[in-house]
Amino acid sequence: MKTHHEIRDPIHTFILVDSDERKVIDSPPVQRLRHIHQLALTSLVYPGATHKRFEHSLGVMDLATRIFDTVTREENIQHESVRSIVRTGDQLRYWRRVLRIAALCHDIGHLPFSHAAEDELLPEGWDHERITASLISSSPMKEIWNGLEQPLRADDILKLAVGPKKAGVDFSEWEAILAEIIVGDAFGADRIDYLLRDSHHAGVAYGGFDHHRLIGTLRILPQAGGSSEPALGIEEGGLHSAEALLLARYFMYTQVYFHPVRRIYDQHLKDFLREWTDGAGLPTDMESHLSLTDHEVYSAILDAARNPHQPGHEPARRIVERDHFKEVYRRTRSDIERNPEAAELIVEALTTEFGAESIRSDSYRGRGGATDFPVVMPNGRIISSIDQSDVLKTVPPVAVDYVFALPERREEITDWLTTHREKIIPPVGNEEASTWS
Hey, which of 16, 102, 243, 334 would disulfide with 391, CB 3.0 to 4.6 Å? Predict the structure, then answer.
Protein backbone atom coordinates (compact mmCIF):
# COMPACT_ATOMS: atom_id res chain seq x y z
CA MET A 1 0.00 0.00 0.00
CA LYS A 2 1.39 3.39 -1.00
CA THR A 3 2.38 5.40 2.05
CA HIS A 4 3.68 8.57 0.37
CA HIS A 5 1.81 10.65 -2.15
CA GLU A 6 2.78 13.44 -4.55
CA ILE A 7 0.40 16.30 -5.26
CA ARG A 8 1.17 18.49 -8.26
CA ASP A 9 1.06 22.21 -7.56
CA PRO A 10 1.62 25.16 -9.93
CA ILE A 11 3.64 27.06 -7.30
CA HIS A 12 5.70 24.38 -5.54
CA THR A 13 5.75 21.69 -8.32
CA PHE A 14 5.23 18.70 -6.00
CA ILE A 15 3.86 18.63 -2.46
CA LEU A 16 4.59 15.39 -0.61
CA VAL A 17 2.25 13.92 2.00
CA ASP A 18 2.05 10.60 3.81
CA SER A 19 -0.95 8.40 4.50
CA ASP A 20 -1.64 9.92 7.92
CA GLU A 21 -1.70 13.37 6.36
CA ARG A 22 -4.01 12.06 3.67
CA LYS A 23 -6.51 11.23 6.42
CA VAL A 24 -6.49 14.89 7.46
CA ILE A 25 -6.67 16.10 3.86
CA ASP A 26 -9.68 13.84 3.28
CA SER A 27 -11.52 15.14 6.36
CA PRO A 28 -14.65 17.28 5.74
CA PRO A 29 -13.17 20.54 7.12
CA VAL A 30 -10.17 20.38 4.78
CA GLN A 31 -12.10 19.07 1.76
CA ARG A 32 -14.58 21.94 2.19
CA LEU A 33 -11.73 24.32 1.29
CA ARG A 34 -11.92 23.02 -2.29
CA HIS A 35 -15.10 25.11 -2.51
CA ILE A 36 -13.91 28.34 -0.87
CA HIS A 37 -12.36 30.88 -3.22
CA GLN A 38 -9.09 32.30 -1.96
CA LEU A 39 -9.91 35.80 -3.24
CA ALA A 40 -13.70 36.01 -3.06
CA LEU A 41 -15.06 37.64 -6.24
CA THR A 42 -11.67 38.82 -7.50
CA SER A 43 -12.10 36.71 -10.64
CA LEU A 44 -14.62 39.32 -11.79
CA VAL A 45 -11.59 41.62 -12.16
CA TYR A 46 -8.74 39.14 -12.68
CA PRO A 47 -10.37 36.17 -14.49
CA GLY A 48 -7.67 33.68 -13.54
CA ALA A 49 -8.05 34.25 -9.80
CA THR A 50 -10.38 31.29 -9.28
CA HIS A 51 -8.04 29.32 -7.01
CA LYS A 52 -9.27 27.92 -3.71
CA ARG A 53 -8.22 27.80 -0.06
CA PHE A 54 -7.51 24.06 -0.45
CA GLU A 55 -4.40 24.35 -2.60
CA HIS A 56 -3.23 27.35 -0.58
CA SER A 57 -3.38 25.23 2.59
CA LEU A 58 -1.30 22.51 0.95
CA GLY A 59 1.22 25.16 -0.07
CA VAL A 60 1.42 26.57 3.45
CA MET A 61 2.09 23.07 4.79
CA ASP A 62 4.90 22.59 2.29
CA LEU A 63 6.52 25.98 2.95
CA ALA A 64 6.18 25.72 6.73
CA THR A 65 7.98 22.37 6.59
CA ARG A 66 10.82 23.85 4.55
CA ILE A 67 11.19 26.70 7.03
CA PHE A 68 11.09 24.30 10.01
CA ASP A 69 13.74 22.04 8.49
CA THR A 70 15.98 25.04 7.79
CA VAL A 71 15.79 26.75 11.16
CA THR A 72 16.11 23.54 13.23
CA ARG A 73 19.12 22.21 11.30
CA GLU A 74 22.03 21.86 13.72
CA GLU A 75 24.46 24.00 11.75
CA ASN A 76 21.90 26.82 11.58
CA ILE A 77 21.58 27.12 15.37
CA GLN A 78 24.46 29.28 16.57
CA HIS A 79 23.16 30.84 19.79
CA GLU A 80 22.85 28.99 23.07
CA SER A 81 19.63 30.81 24.01
CA VAL A 82 18.09 29.37 20.83
CA ARG A 83 19.62 25.93 21.23
CA SER A 84 18.00 25.61 24.64
CA ILE A 85 14.46 25.87 23.22
CA VAL A 86 14.80 23.81 20.01
CA ARG A 87 13.57 20.27 20.50
CA THR A 88 15.59 17.22 19.47
CA GLY A 89 14.99 13.58 18.65
CA ASP A 90 11.42 12.27 18.98
CA GLN A 91 10.19 15.63 20.25
CA LEU A 92 11.51 17.39 17.15
CA ARG A 93 9.80 14.83 14.92
CA TYR A 94 6.56 15.19 16.89
CA TRP A 95 6.49 18.98 16.53
CA ARG A 96 7.37 18.77 12.84
CA ARG A 97 4.26 16.66 12.37
CA VAL A 98 2.15 19.05 14.45
CA LEU A 99 3.44 21.98 12.38
CA ARG A 100 2.51 20.30 9.09
CA ILE A 101 -0.99 19.44 10.26
CA ALA A 102 -1.54 22.89 11.79
CA ALA A 103 -0.44 24.55 8.54
CA LEU A 104 -2.80 22.31 6.58
CA CYS A 105 -5.70 23.23 8.88
CA HIS A 106 -4.96 26.91 9.50
CA ASP A 107 -7.77 28.08 7.15
CA ILE A 108 -10.54 25.55 7.81
CA GLY A 109 -12.61 28.19 9.62
CA HIS A 110 -12.93 30.47 6.60
CA LEU A 111 -16.41 31.58 5.59
CA PRO A 112 -17.78 31.44 2.05
CA PHE A 113 -15.75 33.76 -0.17
CA SER A 114 -13.08 33.97 2.53
CA HIS A 115 -12.58 37.38 4.18
CA ALA A 116 -15.27 39.29 2.31
CA ALA A 117 -18.02 38.83 4.91
CA GLU A 118 -16.11 38.07 8.08
CA ASP A 119 -16.12 41.44 9.85
CA GLU A 120 -19.85 42.12 9.61
CA LEU A 121 -21.58 38.74 9.42
CA LEU A 122 -20.25 36.81 12.41
CA PRO A 123 -21.39 37.19 16.02
CA GLU A 124 -19.34 39.54 18.18
CA GLY A 125 -16.09 37.94 19.23
CA TRP A 126 -16.03 35.47 16.35
CA ASP A 127 -13.66 35.33 13.39
CA HIS A 128 -12.38 32.58 11.12
CA GLU A 129 -9.53 31.76 13.54
CA ARG A 130 -12.02 31.06 16.33
CA ILE A 131 -14.00 28.77 14.02
CA THR A 132 -10.74 27.07 13.03
CA ALA A 133 -9.92 26.47 16.69
CA SER A 134 -13.37 25.02 17.41
CA LEU A 135 -13.09 22.65 14.45
CA ILE A 136 -9.62 21.44 15.44
CA SER A 137 -10.94 20.76 18.96
CA SER A 138 -14.15 19.06 17.79
CA SER A 139 -14.84 15.40 18.51
CA PRO A 140 -14.65 14.24 14.86
CA MET A 141 -11.24 15.86 14.39
CA LYS A 142 -9.97 14.59 17.74
CA GLU A 143 -10.78 11.08 16.51
CA ILE A 144 -8.45 11.73 13.58
CA TRP A 145 -5.67 13.15 15.80
CA ASN A 146 -5.92 10.17 18.15
CA GLY A 147 -6.06 7.67 15.29
CA LEU A 148 -2.87 8.75 13.56
CA GLU A 149 0.13 6.43 13.68
CA GLN A 150 1.73 9.04 15.94
CA PRO A 151 -1.23 10.59 17.82
CA LEU A 152 -1.23 14.38 18.10
CA ARG A 153 -2.68 16.63 20.77
CA ALA A 154 -5.47 18.88 19.52
CA ASP A 155 -4.29 21.76 21.70
CA ASP A 156 -0.85 21.70 20.08
CA ILE A 157 -2.34 21.81 16.58
CA LEU A 158 -4.72 24.60 17.59
CA LYS A 159 -1.92 26.78 18.97
CA LEU A 160 0.24 26.60 15.87
CA ALA A 161 -2.71 27.00 13.49
CA VAL A 162 -4.05 30.28 14.89
CA GLY A 163 -1.08 31.76 16.76
CA PRO A 164 -0.69 33.58 20.10
CA LYS A 165 -2.87 36.55 19.13
CA LYS A 166 -5.92 34.34 18.54
CA ALA A 167 -5.49 31.22 20.68
CA GLY A 168 -6.13 32.97 23.99
CA VAL A 169 -3.73 30.71 25.90
CA ASP A 170 -0.10 30.88 27.01
CA PHE A 171 2.61 29.81 24.56
CA SER A 172 6.09 28.53 25.31
CA GLU A 173 8.92 30.18 23.37
CA TRP A 174 9.15 27.06 21.19
CA GLU A 175 5.42 27.07 20.42
CA ALA A 176 5.51 30.79 19.62
CA ILE A 177 8.32 30.27 17.11
CA LEU A 178 6.45 27.41 15.42
CA ALA A 179 3.26 29.47 15.19
CA GLU A 180 5.33 32.31 13.71
CA ILE A 181 6.54 29.92 11.00
CA ILE A 182 2.92 29.51 9.88
CA VAL A 183 1.14 32.81 10.62
CA GLY A 184 3.94 35.26 11.43
CA ASP A 185 3.73 38.84 10.20
CA ALA A 186 7.22 38.86 8.73
CA PHE A 187 8.01 35.39 7.37
CA GLY A 188 4.88 33.30 7.89
CA ALA A 189 4.40 30.51 5.37
CA ASP A 190 0.80 31.67 5.00
CA ARG A 191 1.94 35.06 3.70
CA ILE A 192 4.66 33.63 1.46
CA ASP A 193 2.25 31.23 -0.21
CA TYR A 194 -0.65 33.62 -0.71
CA LEU A 195 1.57 36.24 -2.31
CA LEU A 196 3.11 33.74 -4.73
CA ARG A 197 -0.14 31.94 -5.43
CA ASP A 198 -2.40 34.97 -5.74
CA SER A 199 -0.04 36.78 -8.11
CA HIS A 200 0.31 33.64 -10.24
CA HIS A 201 -3.43 33.15 -10.64
CA ALA A 202 -4.22 36.83 -11.00
CA GLY A 203 -1.64 37.04 -13.78
CA VAL A 204 0.38 39.85 -12.19
CA ALA A 205 4.09 39.98 -11.35
CA TYR A 206 3.78 42.07 -8.17
CA GLY A 207 3.83 39.13 -5.76
CA GLY A 208 7.01 37.50 -6.98
CA PHE A 209 10.20 37.33 -4.89
CA ASP A 210 13.01 34.84 -4.30
CA HIS A 211 11.36 32.71 -1.65
CA HIS A 212 13.96 29.95 -2.02
CA ARG A 213 16.75 32.35 -1.00
CA LEU A 214 14.55 33.77 1.74
CA ILE A 215 13.79 30.40 3.32
CA GLY A 216 17.40 29.27 2.99
CA THR A 217 18.58 32.20 5.11
CA LEU A 218 15.90 32.15 7.81
CA ARG A 219 17.13 31.51 11.35
CA ILE A 220 15.80 31.46 14.90
CA LEU A 221 17.65 34.35 16.53
CA PRO A 222 17.69 36.31 19.76
CA GLN A 223 16.05 39.70 19.38
CA ALA A 224 18.29 42.65 18.55
CA GLY A 225 19.27 44.81 21.50
CA GLY A 226 20.46 42.05 23.79
CA SER A 227 17.14 40.34 24.52
CA SER A 228 17.32 36.55 24.69
CA GLU A 229 13.72 36.19 23.54
CA PRO A 230 13.87 34.27 20.24
CA ALA A 231 12.24 35.30 16.99
CA LEU A 232 12.27 34.27 13.38
CA GLY A 233 15.01 36.30 11.72
CA ILE A 234 17.37 36.13 8.79
CA GLU A 235 21.00 36.07 7.76
CA GLU A 236 22.19 39.36 6.29
CA GLY A 237 22.60 37.65 2.90
CA GLY A 238 18.85 37.11 2.70
CA LEU A 239 17.85 40.67 3.57
CA HIS A 240 17.18 41.67 -0.03
CA SER A 241 14.78 38.73 -0.36
CA ALA A 242 13.04 39.87 2.82
CA GLU A 243 12.77 43.38 1.41
CA ALA A 244 11.29 41.94 -1.78
CA LEU A 245 8.71 40.02 0.26
CA LEU A 246 7.56 43.14 2.09
CA LEU A 247 7.42 45.17 -1.13
CA ALA A 248 5.54 42.35 -2.87
CA ARG A 249 2.96 42.47 -0.09
CA TYR A 250 2.59 46.23 -0.46
CA PHE A 251 2.13 46.04 -4.23
CA MET A 252 -0.27 43.09 -4.07
CA TYR A 253 -2.43 44.96 -1.57
CA THR A 254 -2.49 48.16 -3.58
CA GLN A 255 -2.83 46.57 -7.03
CA VAL A 256 -4.91 43.42 -6.42
CA TYR A 257 -6.47 43.08 -2.97
CA PHE A 258 -7.56 46.74 -2.89
CA HIS A 259 -8.45 47.11 -6.54
CA PRO A 260 -11.54 49.38 -6.39
CA VAL A 261 -13.78 47.07 -8.45
CA ARG A 262 -12.81 44.12 -6.27
CA ARG A 263 -13.63 46.13 -3.16
CA ILE A 264 -17.07 47.24 -4.34
CA TYR A 265 -17.97 43.65 -5.23
CA ASP A 266 -17.10 42.72 -1.64
CA GLN A 267 -19.66 45.31 -0.53
CA HIS A 268 -22.34 43.97 -2.87
CA LEU A 269 -21.60 40.46 -1.59
CA LYS A 270 -21.94 41.58 2.04
CA ASP A 271 -25.19 43.39 1.19
CA PHE A 272 -26.54 40.20 -0.32
CA LEU A 273 -25.48 37.99 2.60
CA ARG A 274 -26.99 40.39 5.10
CA GLU A 275 -30.39 40.26 3.35
CA TRP A 276 -30.16 36.55 2.53
CA THR A 277 -29.59 35.67 6.19
CA ASP A 278 -32.23 38.19 7.30
CA GLY A 279 -29.63 39.98 9.37
CA ALA A 280 -28.75 36.88 11.38
CA GLY A 281 -25.30 36.55 9.86
CA LEU A 282 -23.39 33.37 9.07
CA PRO A 283 -23.34 30.27 11.32
CA THR A 284 -20.49 29.28 13.60
CA ASP A 285 -21.59 25.78 14.62
CA MET A 286 -19.65 22.96 12.99
CA GLU A 287 -22.46 21.28 11.04
CA SER A 288 -23.79 24.50 9.51
CA HIS A 289 -20.31 25.83 8.79
CA LEU A 290 -19.24 22.68 6.96
CA SER A 291 -22.39 22.64 4.85
CA LEU A 292 -22.00 26.24 3.65
CA THR A 293 -19.54 26.95 0.82
CA ASP A 294 -19.24 29.34 -2.09
CA HIS A 295 -21.45 27.01 -4.14
CA GLU A 296 -24.48 27.39 -1.89
CA VAL A 297 -24.01 31.14 -1.63
CA TYR A 298 -23.53 31.70 -5.35
CA SER A 299 -26.52 29.49 -6.15
CA ALA A 300 -28.58 31.72 -3.85
CA ILE A 301 -27.13 34.80 -5.58
CA LEU A 302 -28.23 33.47 -8.97
CA ASP A 303 -31.74 32.71 -7.68
CA ALA A 304 -32.07 36.14 -6.09
CA ALA A 305 -30.75 37.90 -9.18
CA ARG A 306 -33.53 36.33 -11.30
CA ASN A 307 -36.35 37.02 -8.85
CA PRO A 308 -37.07 40.63 -7.77
CA HIS A 309 -39.04 39.30 -4.79
CA GLN A 310 -36.16 37.30 -3.32
CA PRO A 311 -34.21 38.74 -0.36
CA GLY A 312 -30.99 40.30 -1.61
CA HIS A 313 -32.23 40.72 -5.17
CA GLU A 314 -30.58 44.08 -5.82
CA PRO A 315 -27.00 43.26 -4.71
CA ALA A 316 -27.30 39.81 -6.31
CA ARG A 317 -28.36 41.37 -9.60
CA ARG A 318 -25.42 43.76 -9.46
CA ILE A 319 -23.00 40.87 -9.01
CA VAL A 320 -24.47 38.68 -11.74
CA GLU A 321 -24.98 41.48 -14.26
CA ARG A 322 -21.71 43.24 -13.38
CA ASP A 323 -23.69 46.38 -12.65
CA HIS A 324 -21.58 47.44 -9.68
CA PHE A 325 -21.40 50.90 -8.19
CA LYS A 326 -18.78 52.98 -10.02
CA GLU A 327 -15.84 54.82 -8.56
CA VAL A 328 -16.22 58.61 -8.37
CA TYR A 329 -13.41 59.42 -5.93
CA ARG A 330 -10.21 57.97 -4.52
CA ARG A 331 -7.77 59.51 -2.09
CA THR A 332 -4.89 61.54 -3.48
CA ARG A 333 -1.82 62.87 -1.75
CA SER A 334 -2.80 66.46 -2.50
CA ASP A 335 -6.27 65.99 -0.95
CA ILE A 336 -4.82 64.41 2.20
CA GLU A 337 -2.22 67.14 2.52
CA ARG A 338 -4.99 69.71 2.16
CA ASN A 339 -7.22 67.98 4.73
CA PRO A 340 -6.63 64.52 6.31
CA GLU A 341 -10.42 64.04 6.52
CA ALA A 342 -10.93 64.69 2.80
CA ALA A 343 -12.56 61.32 2.07
CA GLU A 344 -14.97 61.54 5.01
CA LEU A 345 -15.99 65.06 3.97
CA ILE A 346 -16.65 63.94 0.42
CA VAL A 347 -18.74 60.97 1.55
CA GLU A 348 -20.76 63.24 3.82
CA ALA A 349 -21.30 65.81 1.07
CA LEU A 350 -22.30 63.29 -1.58
CA THR A 351 -24.61 61.41 0.78
CA THR A 352 -26.36 64.64 1.74
CA GLU A 353 -26.69 65.81 -1.85
CA PHE A 354 -27.63 62.54 -3.58
CA GLY A 355 -28.91 60.26 -0.79
CA ALA A 356 -27.35 57.31 1.00
CA GLU A 357 -28.84 54.87 -1.51
CA SER A 358 -26.70 56.41 -4.27
CA ILE A 359 -23.33 56.33 -2.49
CA ARG A 360 -20.99 53.65 -1.16
CA SER A 361 -17.62 54.23 0.46
CA ASP A 362 -14.64 52.10 1.37
CA SER A 363 -11.77 53.03 3.67
CA TYR A 364 -8.79 51.04 4.92
CA ARG A 365 -5.74 52.03 6.96
CA GLY A 366 -2.91 49.55 7.24
CA ARG A 367 0.00 49.60 9.61
CA GLY A 368 2.90 51.75 8.41
CA GLY A 369 6.34 50.37 7.72
CA ALA A 370 7.54 46.80 8.02
CA THR A 371 7.63 44.30 10.86
CA ASP A 372 10.97 44.47 12.66
CA PHE A 373 12.97 41.24 12.86
CA PRO A 374 16.54 40.30 13.86
CA VAL A 375 19.30 40.10 11.25
CA VAL A 376 22.53 38.23 11.92
CA MET A 377 25.55 39.83 10.30
CA PRO A 378 28.53 37.86 8.93
CA ASN A 379 30.50 38.67 12.11
CA GLY A 380 27.71 37.20 14.27
CA ARG A 381 26.33 40.52 15.48
CA ILE A 382 22.52 40.68 15.65
CA ILE A 383 20.87 43.94 14.64
CA SER A 384 17.39 45.22 13.87
CA SER A 385 16.19 44.87 10.28
CA ILE A 386 14.84 48.42 10.40
CA ASP A 387 18.29 49.71 11.40
CA GLN A 388 19.97 47.79 8.59
CA SER A 389 17.50 48.27 5.72
CA ASP A 390 16.63 51.65 4.24
CA VAL A 391 13.96 49.89 2.16
CA LEU A 392 12.10 48.54 5.17
CA LYS A 393 12.14 51.95 6.83
CA THR A 394 10.25 53.45 3.91
CA VAL A 395 7.62 50.82 3.12
CA PRO A 396 4.47 52.95 3.11
CA PRO A 397 1.28 51.90 4.88
CA VAL A 398 -1.52 50.51 2.76
CA ALA A 399 -4.24 53.15 2.84
CA VAL A 400 -7.21 53.53 0.53
CA ASP A 401 -10.31 55.68 0.36
CA TYR A 402 -12.84 55.06 -2.38
CA VAL A 403 -16.25 56.56 -3.01
CA PHE A 404 -18.64 54.80 -5.38
CA ALA A 405 -21.92 55.90 -6.93
CA LEU A 406 -24.91 54.35 -8.65
CA PRO A 407 -23.84 53.60 -12.23
CA GLU A 408 -26.69 55.61 -13.74
CA ARG A 409 -25.76 58.65 -11.65
CA ARG A 410 -21.98 58.41 -11.99
CA GLU A 411 -21.60 61.19 -14.56
CA GLU A 412 -23.92 63.53 -12.67
CA ILE A 413 -22.17 62.92 -9.36
CA THR A 414 -18.70 63.23 -10.87
CA ASP A 415 -19.58 66.58 -12.44
CA TRP A 416 -21.05 67.86 -9.18
CA LEU A 417 -18.01 66.71 -7.23
CA THR A 418 -15.65 68.41 -9.68
CA THR A 419 -17.53 71.68 -9.24
CA HIS A 420 -17.75 71.55 -5.44
CA ARG A 421 -14.48 69.78 -4.45
CA GLU A 422 -12.70 72.90 -3.21
CA LYS A 423 -15.61 73.85 -0.95
CA ILE A 424 -16.07 70.30 0.33
CA ILE A 425 -12.42 69.98 1.40
CA PRO A 426 -11.42 73.13 3.27
CA PRO A 427 -7.69 73.42 4.01
CA VAL A 428 -6.66 72.45 7.55
CA GLY A 429 -6.66 75.54 9.72
CA ASN A 430 -9.49 77.21 7.81
CA GLU A 431 -12.20 77.55 10.43
CA GLU A 432 -14.79 78.64 7.91
CA ALA A 433 -17.42 75.93 7.51
CA SER A 434 -17.82 74.26 4.14
CA THR A 435 -20.43 76.10 2.08
CA TRP A 436 -21.15 73.45 -0.53
CA SER A 437 -24.54 72.69 1.02
Answer: 243
